[in-house]
């Protein structure tokens, strides 16, 4: 069975602080894909990044960075110098090779960035 | 391209009523899915389809039916609505040929069952 755990339900930071959102996953597949999505207060789901299980290279995109560690089954997301516009719910998701084409989401982490 | 569209945006039903949530995509995506979003529970997969004529159950399929007669459309049917089905429903689609590709989500349908 596949599972995604986002243990942090809510995080509150002050603008310009760095914040890391944790994601731990479980899968028996040796090939799998991980995703992060953002859901701002307006409600739509916005794709942020994808990573396959063979690519452990960390990625940086502006103030966003992702740390993928297969050894700990984690795919953490860091926002550097957070801004009020970063306030949103962030979801981590997993898609394996077994079980069809299903993508399983974590419960999400709600991030509040205060001015 | 309109992307993934969902109708209606809002709906109020009484217990026992039936309705269909519509989802359409114009990107020729083979894979489509329905999720429900409830506070503290993230997005839970209801049903999904890997192509026209093929559907399968997700994590929480009870109380919902789907069909996929065309590549473009993937309606979700509630046969007898219950208050437990009050939720926000998202439809999503993606290419099947590359599992690495992300899903595109519709704007959601907010359903209230009284």
Shape of chain A: globular
Q: Name the beta content range of chain A.
A: over 45%
Mean of residue pLDDT values of chain A: 93
Head-to-tail CA distance between termini of chain A:
41 Å
Oligomeric grouping of the chains: heterodimer
Total DSSP E strands of chain B = 11
Please tell me what the overall shape of chain B is.
globular
Instruction: Find the structural class of chain B using helix and strand composition.
Output: mainly beta
Reported for the largest beta sheet of chain B, the result is: 7 strands, mixed
Low-confidence stretches of chain B: none
What's the Cα radius of gyration of chain B?
13 Å
Low-confidence stretches of chain A: none
Judged by helices, strands and strand pairing, the structural class of chain A is: mainly beta
Series of H and E elements of chain B: EEEEEEEEEEE
Helical proportion of chain A?
under 10%
Query: Kindly state the mean pLDDT of chain B as a whole number?
Result: 93
Q: What is Rg of chain A?
A: 14 Å
Major sheet characteristics of chain A: 6 strands, mixed
Q: State the helix count of chain B.
A: 0
Question: How much of the polypeptide of chain B forms β-strand, as a percent range?
Answer: over 45%
**Biggest interface and its residues per chain?**
A-B, 24 and 27 residues
In short:
Chain A is mainly β. Chain A has strands spanning 3-5, 10-14, 19-21, 24-26, 32-39, 46-52, 59-61, 64-69, 74-79, 88-96, 103-105, 109-114. Chain A has no helices and 12 strands.
Task: Describe what this molecule looks like in 3D.
The complex is a heterodimer of chains A (115) and B (114). Chain A has 115 residues and is mainly β. The mean pLDDT of chain A is 93. Chain A has strands spanning 3-5, 10-14, 19-21, 24-26, 32-39, 46-52, 59-61, 64-69, 74-79, 88-96, 103-105, 109-114. Chain A is built from no helices and twelve strands. Chain A is 0% helix and 54% strand. In chain A, the strands form three sheets. In chain A, strands 2, 5, 6, 10, 11 and 12 form a six-stranded mixed beta sheet that branches. Chain A has a four-stranded antiparallel beta sheet with strand order 3-9-8-7, with no helix packed on it. With 114 residues, chain B is mostly beta strands. Chain B has strands at 4-7, 10-13, 19-25, 31-38, 42-51, 54-57, 64-66, 76-78, 87-94, 104-105, 109-113. In chain B, strands 2, 4, 5, 6, 9, 10 and 11 form a seven-stranded mixed beta sheet that branches. At the A-B interface, strand 5, strand 6, strand 10 and strand 11 of A face strand 4, strand 5, strand 9 and strand 10 of B.
């Amino acid at each position: 069975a596949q599972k995604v755990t986002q243990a942090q339900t809510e995080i509150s930071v002050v603008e310009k602080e760095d914040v890391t959102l944790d994601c731990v996953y479980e899968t028996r597949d040796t090939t799998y894909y991980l995703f992060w999505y953002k859901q701002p207060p307006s409600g739509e789901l916005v794709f942020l990044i994808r990573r396959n299980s063979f690519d452990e290279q960390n990625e940086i995109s502006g103030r966003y960075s992702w740390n993928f560690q297969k050894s700990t089954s984690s795919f953490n997301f860091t926002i550097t110098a957070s801004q009020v516009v970063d306030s949103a719910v962030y979801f981590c998701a997993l898609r394996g090779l077994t079980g069809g084409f299903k993508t399983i989401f974590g419960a999400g982490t709600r991030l509040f960035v205060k001015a | 391209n309109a992307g993934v569209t969902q109708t209606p945006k809002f709906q109020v039903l009484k217990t026992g009523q039936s309705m269909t949530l519509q989802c359409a995509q114009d990107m020729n995506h083979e894979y489509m899915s329905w999720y429900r979003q409830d506070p503290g529970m993230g997005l839970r997969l209801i049903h999904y389809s890997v192509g026209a004529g093929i559907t399968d159950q997700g994590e929480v399929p009870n109380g919902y039916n789907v069909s996929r007669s065309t590549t473009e459309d993937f309606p979700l049917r509630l046969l007898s609505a219950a208050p437990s089905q009050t939720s926000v429903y998202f439809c999503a689609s993606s290419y099947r040929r590359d599992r690495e590709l992300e899903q595109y989500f519709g704007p959601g349908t907010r359903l209230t069952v009284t």
